[in-house]
Amino acid sequence: MPEYKTPMRDMKFVFNELLQTQKHYQTIPTGEEATPDMVDAILEECAKLSEEVLSPLNQVGDKEGCKLVDGQVITPTGFKDAYNQYIAGGWQGMSHPVEYGGQGLPLSLGVLKSEMISTANWSWGMYPGLSMGAMNTVYLHGNEEQKRIYLTKLTEGTWTGSMCLTEPQCGTDLGQVKTKAELNEDGSYKITGTKIFISAGDHDLTDNIVHIVLARLPDAPKGTRGISLFIVPKHLPDASGNTGEFNNVNVGSLEEKMGIKGSSTCVMNFDGAKGFLIGPPNKGLECMFTFMNTARIGTGLQGCAAAELSFQGALAYAKDRLSMRSLSGKKAPDKVADPIIVHPDVRRMLLTQKAFAEGGRAMIYYAAHKADFLIDDSNEEKQARADDDLGFLTPIIKAFLTETGYESANLGMQVFGGHGYIKEWGMEQIVRDTRISMLYEGTTGIQALDLLGRKILLDKGAAFRRFSKEVSQYCKGKSPYVTGKSRGKMKDMISELTWLNRQWNFVALRLVFNAMRNKDEVGSASVDFLMYSGYIVMAYFWAMMAEKAYEQLAKGAEEDKDFYRAKIQTAEFYFARILPRTKTHYATMMSGSKNLMQIEDEHFAFA
Amino acid sequence: MPEYKTPMRDMKFVFNELLQTQKHYQTIPTGEEATPDMVDAILEECAKLSEEVLSPLNQVGDKEGCKLVDGQVITPTGFKDAYNQYIAGGWQGMSHPVEYGGQGLPLSLGVLKSEMISTANWSWGMYPGLSMGAMNTVYLHGNEEQKRIYLTKLTEGTWTGSMCLTEPQCGTDLGQVKTKAELNEDGSYKITGTKIFISAGDHDLTDNIVHIVLARLPDAPKGTRGISLFIVPKHLPDASGNTGEFNNVNVGSLEEKMGIKGSSTCVMNFDGAKGFLIGPPNKGLECMFTFMNTARIGTGLQGCAAAELSFQGALAYAKDRLSMRSLSGKKAPDKVADPIIVHPDVRRMLLTQKAFAEGGRAMIYYAAHKADFLIDDSNEEKQARADDDLGFLTPIIKAFLTETGYESANLGMQVFGGHGYIKEWGMEQIVRDTRISMLYEGTTGIQALDLLGRKILLDKGAAFRRFSKEVSQYCKGKSPYVTGKSRGKMKDMISELTWLNRQWNFVALRLVFNAMRNKDEVGSASVDFLMYSGYIVMAYFWAMMAEKAYEQLAKGAEEDKDFYRAKIQTAEFYFARILPRTKTHYATMMSGSKNLMQIEDEHFAFA
Fold it and tell me: How many domains would you assign to chain A?
C-alpha cells in the first residue's frame, strides 16, 4: 500500500497562493481565529495524524474488514485507538460552533483536514465523516434541547452519527420510503422499519450512535412530501445526558462489499425504537438535503483523494521498476533496464493522475470558500448566492471528480502491470475503495440530472451563467486570483478556454431548447454535459494555476522554481491531452435522444 | 450473480449470416467435419455445459478462492467435477489434431466454445485455457516423442499445462529472465529458478501438470537472444507414460488477487527439476510467441465476455428495478415507479454494453477465420498472410476489447446503483475479474507499442493497409459479407466510415513521419492510436451488421424482424454515441511528445 505523504506544497499553493485564503478569511466571521500560524499548525498536526496513525491502518482495514459479533459491529484492529487519538485532538469539532464544544474554525479549513484523512484512510474517515452529516442536521434543524443533548456529544466525538435514508426498495427515489413513525404518548415517536446501506450504522468506536432517520407519519401524504426526519439514538440518553438504555436499534446484517471494507455498511432494523421529530413534519427531505452540497463535495474529495494516493504509489513504482529501454536511447545505462518512468505512455498515465489530483484539489478548495459563506448569517444575500453557486458546482465536483478519480486509480494500477492486480501492493484496493464514490450520495447519472435538469433548466442557469462569466472575466484579464502580469505567456490556454467557455454557453442554451420540445433530451445529454462541464471547469483552474506559477517565477521564486515549472508543464499536459475530451462529449450530447429511445425495452436482447 | 444465458441468436447471426462460416469452412482442411448439423449440436451442448455446470460455479469460485494446503493447490468446490465433465465431453481437444486424440475441428469453432465458457466462468476457464498454450507449444515445437508423451495427455485433458514466463524482476522485459537450465548427463536439464504469476501453476483438477518454462542455458547470450524453452512436468512420466515420480516443482505461494479468485496464480519454485529442451536452444522467446496471437485474442475475448455477462445482469435489473418516473411521462402508471430502463441514461449504459459485446463478438469471429488458416500447411502464402493479418488485428482485439469490456463491466455495476457495490449481486465480481485482462498477456500499453511500433512502423504497415483497403472496398460496395442490395439505407454510416478510414491512413502516415524524427513520438501516441483504431475497426463491423440486417429484413425475415431492427438501432447508437470518441483520440495522439517528456522525473511531485 502506498504510504500517504501529505502533498503539503501543493495544498499550500492552492490554499495560500492561488486562492489567497487569508484574504478570504478576513471576510467571514469564523476566519478571525484562522491566522496563518494557526492554519500551519493545524495542517502539520493533521498531516502527522494522517501519515502516522491513519495511513498504516488503510490496508489492515481492507484485510480484516468489519465483523458482526453478537449483534455488534467490530471495526478492524487499530481503528478504535486511532479514533480516540482523533477525538482527543479535538478534530471532530474543528469547524463547528464553540458553543457546542467545537473550535469555530472555517469550514474550508475542515476540508483540508478531510482531504488528508480521506487520502490516508477513506474507510476510517467514514465514521467521523457520517457523523458530520448528523451534526449538521441537528445544528440546522434541531431545537435547543436536541442540540444540547446530541450536538455536544457529536461535536466532541463521544458519540457518532449516521444518516438512515435508503430502504431495500428505494435509494434515489426516496418518495418510496416505508419506515413508519407513530406518535407515543410522551410526544416521541415509535419508529419501525428497515434501512439499508447505512454507513457507520454500527461500530465499536463509541458507546452510542445518533441515527438520523427518514420515516413517514401515519397521516402523511404519499411520496416525497410525506417524509419526516427523526433523531433515533442507539441508546437513549439518561437523565444526565449520557448513554442510557438500549433503544431497539438492531443491526440486521453487515453488507459484503467490493471495497471500503473497514467501513461498516449495515442493514438497520428499527423495531419500535423511540425517535424524536427534528424539523417540521413532512419536511424531512428538505431538511435532510440542506447540507447535501457539502456532503457531496466530500464525496468529490474522495475522487481527488484516490487520484492523489494512487499517483503517489504509481510514481514511486515508476521510478523504481526497471523494464525495457527507452525507445529514444538508454536512460540508465548502468542498470539492467531503464526505470519505466522513461516510457512516454507511463508518463501519460502519471500526468493524468497528477492533473486530476491537483486540478480537483483546486476545484474543491474553491468550492470550500463558497461553503464558508453558508454559515455566515450576517449577510443573507451573500449566503443565498454562495448556496446557489455551490449548488451549481456540487454535481460537477461530485460526479466529475469521482469519475476521474476512478480513472486515476485504475491508471495507477496499470502502471504496476500485473503486480497492480496483487493485493499486497495496495493499488487494487484504491480502485475497489474508490468505486463506491460514483454510486453513493447520488450516482453520476443523478448528479448529471441535478446539473442539467435542475441547475440549468429549472433554475434558469443563473449560477451557471455567473460561473461562466467569472471564467470569461478571467480570460479577459479580470480575476481576483491573478495579477495578469504574466498574461503574455498564457495566450494558447486563454484562447482555448475562451472558445470552450463560449461553446459551453451555446450548448447549455441548445440543450434547454431541445428539452422544451422533448423531456427525454435531458437524460440523453446529461452525463455527457456534466463531464464536458467538468473538463471546462478544471481547465479554468489549470489555466489559473499556470498563470499563478508564471507570476511567481517572474517574481524570482528561486527555491520553488521547479515546483512552478512542473505546474505549468502539467497545465500544458492538461490542455493538450485531457481537455480534448470535450470534443467527444460535445458530439455525443448533441446527437439527440432518438438513438437511445427508439429501441424497444424487449428488444435489447434475444435468446 | 447474473446467470449466463448463451446469446445464441446473436452468435449465429455473426457466425452464419454475417461471416458465412460454412462457406469459409469449405476452404480449410479442418472444415470438412464442421457441417451445419455438427456445429449446431456442438454449440447446443457447450451452451448447456456453460449455463448449467460452469455458470453456477462462478460466484462460488470468487467466494472460496483457491487454497494452498500442504503445498498443493485446492480449487473451489465443484471445479473438479466440472472439469471431469468437460474432459469426458472431449471438449479440450475439439480443435486439435485427431492423431493426438483431438477432434480436428476448426480453430474458429473452438473460439465459440471459449466464448461460452469464459462468459459463464472465466476463472474456471483459465485451467483448460492455459493448457491450450502448452498444447500449442508442444504441437508446434516439440519432437515426436514429446508430442506422443505430453500432447496426447494434454489433448484428452488428463494432464493440464501452464506457461512459466514471468519472474519477480521481469514480466514484459523477458530478456531479464534468470532461471537456469544446466545439462544433465542424460541429456535432460536441471531447471532452477522462481517464476511468478503462473496461472494454473498448480491445482487439484488433474494429477499432473506440464509446465512450459523459459530458462537460460549456462553459455547463453545476454538478453532475449539467450532464452530457451523447456518442458518441465510436475511429475515425470513413468515408463508407460503415466504420472510418475515428483519432479521438485513446488508452489512457493498463492497470490491474493483482486479477482479471478477461482483461478490459481502461483509462485513456482523449480528446485533443480528435470526439464526437456523444446525447440532450438536460445530460440525460446520466438517459440513461446508463435501462438501468442491466438492467446491474446483469447484475452480480448474476456473483454467481450465481461461486456456480455454484465449486460445480461444489468438488463434484467433495469427491467425489474422501479425508481422515479420517466421525465417524458409515466411509463408504468400501475406501479409505484417506472422501471429504470425508461431513463435515457440507463439506456445509454445498456446500449454501450450491448454495442461492445456484439461488436467485439464480430471482431473476434472475424479474426478466428484468419486463425483457421494458420494451421493449414497446404497453402503457405495464405498462411503467412493470415498470420500477418492476425498480427495486425491482435493488439487491437486484445487491448481495445479488454478496455471496452472493463468499461462495460463498470457500467453494468453502475446500472445497479449502490447495489452494484454489494458482492451478493455479482456485478462487482465481473469488474474485478475483468480488470486482469488489461494487464496480463501484455498490458494495453504493450499492445499499443506492438501495434504502432511494430505492425505499423517496422512492418511498414502492409497488414494495416490491407485491412483498411478491405474497409474502403466495403464502403465502395465491394464486400464478400454483404450483397449491397440495401446500400440505400446505409448512406450515413458509410459516409462516416469512409471519412474515418481515410483519416486513419493519414494519421498512420503522420505518426510514422513523426517517429522518424523522434522515437518518443511512438509511445506518446500509441495508446490513443490503438483505441482510435479499435473504434474504427468496430465501426466497420457495426456498419456491416446493420447492412446485413437491412438485407435480411428486405428478404422478409418476418419472425426475426425485431432482432434485425435492434441490430440496426444498436449500430445507429454506436455511430452516434461511441464512434465520436475518435475525435478526442485524434486530437491527443497528434499533440506530440513534448507535453509528456518535458517534465523532469524528479518534478512529478514535491513534498
Answer: 3
Residue ranges in A375-490 assigned as alpha helix (H): 380-395, 401-415, 427-435, 444-449, 462-475
Helix (H) or strand (E) holding A535: helix A520-554
| Nine-digit cell string for A503 | 461553446
Tell me if A603 and B311 make a contact (CB, 8 A cut-off). Answer: no
Match 425485431 to its residue by C-alpha cell.
Answer: B562
Give dist(CA A495, CA A532) in Å, integer. 18
- A219 CB within 8 Å of a chain B CB: no
Q: What percentage of residues in chain B have a pLDDT greater than 90?
A: 96
Enumerate the β-bridge partners of residue B74.
B67
Whether A256 and A317 map to the same domain: the answer is no
User: How far is Cα A207 from Cα A242, in angstroms, rounded to an integer?
Assistant: 10
- State the complex-level ipTM: 0.98
For residues A146 and A171, membership in a common domain is answered with yes
Kindly identify which residue of chain B lies nearest to residue A520, measuring between CA atoms. B328
**Per-residue pLDDT tens for B524-580?**
999 999 999 999 999 999 999 999 999 999 999 889 999 999 999 999 999 999 999
Is A98 within a domain? yes
Residue B381 lies in a domain: yes
Residues forming beta bridges with residue A252, ordered by sequence position: none
Give the integer Cα–Cα distance in Å for A112 and A364.
9
Q: Which pLDDT score is estimated for A79? A: 98
pLDDT in tens, B455-502: 999 888 999 999 999 999 999 999 999 999 999 999 999 999 999 999
Please give the pLDDT value at position A368.
Answer: 97
B175 Cβ contact list (under 8 Å, min separation 6):
A337, B222, B223, B224, B227
Q: Minimal CA–CA distance to B428: which of A312, A33, A589, A435?
A: A435
Q: How far apart are alpha carbons A491 and A479 in whole angstroms? A: 16
* Chain B residues whose beta carbon lies within 8 Å of the beta carbon of residue A439: 414, 417-418, 420-421
Q: What is the pLDDT of residues A342-361, one digit of tens each?
A: 999 999 999 999 999 999 99
Rounded to a whole number of angstroms, the CA Rg of chain A reads 24
| B69 and B168 together in one domain | no
Tell me the shortest Cα–Cα distance from A248 to chain B, in angstroms. 26
Both B249 and B305 in one domain: the answer is no
Q: Tell me how far apart the 2 most distant CA atoms of chain A are, in Å.
A: 83
pLDDT digits (tens, 9 = 90+) for B263-288: 999 999 999 999 999 999 999 999 98
Reported as a pLDDT band with limits 50, 70 and 90, residue B585 is very high
Distance CA B525, CA B511 (A): 8
Which of A250, A273, A288 represents a domain boundary (last residue)? A288
For residue A172, the chain B residues in CB contact (below 8 A) are 323-324, 417
Owner of C-alpha cell 434475444: A606
Q: Which domain covers residue A43, as residue numbers?
A: 8-288
Within B146-248, strands assigned E span 160-164, 180-183, 189-199, 209-215, 228-233, 235-237, 243-246
pLDDT of residue A459: 80
Task: List all residues of chain B from 395 to 424 with a beta carbon under 8 Å from chain A.
Answer: 406, 410, 413-414, 417-418, 420-424
Q: Is residue B21 part of a domain?
A: yes
- Domain membership of residue B607 (yes or no) is no
At residue A288 the predicted structure's pLDDT band, cuts being 50, 70 and 90, is confident
Strands (E) located in B448-513: none
Residues A523, A426, single domain; the answer is no
Dist CA B392 CA B372 (whole Å): 16
In contact, A443 and A394? CB cutoff 8 Å:
no
